[in-house]
Amino acid sequence: MNVVETLSANSPLDEALRGAIGAxxxxxxxxxxxxxxxxxxxxxxNTRTVLFHEPFPLTIRCGKGCExxxxxGHRYFDFMGEYTAGLAGHxxxxxxxxxxxxxxxxxxxxxxxxxxxxxAATIAKRFPAMELLRFTNxxxxxxxxxxxxxxxxxxxxxxxxxxxxxxxxxxxxKAAVNQVNVPFDWLLAPYNDAAAAAKLIAQHADGIxxxxxxxxxxxGGCIPAERDFLLTLRKxxxxxxxxxxxDEVMTSRLAPGGLQTRYNIRPDLxxxxxxxxxxxxxxxxxxxxxxxxxxxPRKVDALAHAGTFxxxxxxxxxxxxxxxxxxxxxxxxxxxxRGEALxxxxxxxxxxxxxxxxxxxxxxxxxxxxxxxxxxSIADTIAQDQRIKELLFFDLLEQGIYLARRGMAALSFxxxxxxxxxxxxxxxxxxxxxxxxxxxxxxxxxxxxx
Length: 450
Prior knowledge:
single chain; Aspartate Aminotransferase, domain 1
């Protein structure tokens, strides 16, 4: 049964959402047809769960700059940003040329290359916490290797993670533990609760190998960590001989050296992924040299770490181009400032309309929540009405804004003032059009302006 069939005609909010979905279906017959075709070879026509939504997902045909186009001929300003991996925007010429040269020189070279060493040195220089590092094919793999290393290095088995966290496809801790999670001995604690974390670490002092945390929960709602919370994790892990692992797969784009430098807290290990290779498959884990040396194949007791495509030349070349020529500090400062300005404007509109929504995030990443806030952890979002988020998603699509269905936005270097103005106008229109649906007592939801 799809979302249209489950909506009740008796609720004004359900009726509005039914109408928005109906309009979406009418506008996108080719996407519907393409999805039906994809279902013949893939379960639900899908190989990446986060991209699916009912009644069917859009089929994107191409992208240029900060826009994407679908198979029905619609153009959208892309605020999805490939869930933070699309920082370079679409069809960046510098990255494209690096990839072309690699193709011309041969793809599978069966050995070490200069470009992999150059890429590793570039990353180590950008992120000082990575004294030594190794490449993987995704952030998920990077997490798996980092936590495995922590368990081996400490001789302990337990790993602490936090409610709402996402560390990869087999490390998901939203609402309930994901059935396909790696079966480590997990400890779960509330995010941004320093006292609870300290207590749990102390209780399991003899068994805890690592604490893994995002300095800002990305998939969990762009919820920034509080400095006292992270300081407590640093202090308590050192007390019991556990390792502190920072997942900076999403957040490393938010500050020089990663978001950790904003807090002035250095982890033992950290992970990277997403945007670093300019849009190609990429992951990396690294940290203290004494820990990472365990993978040195010159050592008799070295840990093995295989992976046919760990050092594939396309990713290595694109990564060097991205991190030396595209993702400059000036470019990062510019996109993060633009994101801060847009988020501030959206929050202001929520207040002007007295809407039960808020916007959380840092720099170029933010999420719109259908609760008034404040939001410090996923527990603060439990009461939100998902129908409002659905309605926001479909309303913004109709106005040419493409963002994640869960309300998350990730700006790219190509995102310009025109795109941000369109987003602001579309959000304003959504609030103006739907304000009477936000609560039963609509008298309190009249816009503050005339």
